[in-house]
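ok new one. same drill as before - structure tokens go in, u give me an amino acid for every spot. 99 of them this time. try not to just spam alanines like last time pls lmao
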């Protein structure tokens, strides 16, 4: 795993929670997985190109985020399967761009 930021205190706990969340959904952390902290939102995230979504956590439960390639809008889901279904339904776009 590569670290984009230094993780201390509560951010380190969020990262541990996020790693467990990803593992519980059958995904593997690799040497290419990027861990970081979004400077504007404070979200702790993991990025792995092969996953098709970006898991993150701030307060509360971790979730998967999908970014629309057309408008850049962010959509949150509980599982990667939900993202895959959404992408299929809206042909790799979001609901707003699909119309």
């Amino acid at each position: 795993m590569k670290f984009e930021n230094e993780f201390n205190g509560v951010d380190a706990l969020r990262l541990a929670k996020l790693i467990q969340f990803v593992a519980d959904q059958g995904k593997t952390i690799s040497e290419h997985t990027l861990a970081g902290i979004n400077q504007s939102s404070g979200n702790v995230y993991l990025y792995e190109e092969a996953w098709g979504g970006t898991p993150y956590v701030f307060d509360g439960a971790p979730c998967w985020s999908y970014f629309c390639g057309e408008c850049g809008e962010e959509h949150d889901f509980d599982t990667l399967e939900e993202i895959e279904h959404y992408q299929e339904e809206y042909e790799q776009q979001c609901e707003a761009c699909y119309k």
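Helices lie at 9-24, 80-89, 95-98. and btw Residues 1 and 31 are 4 Å apart (CA to CA).
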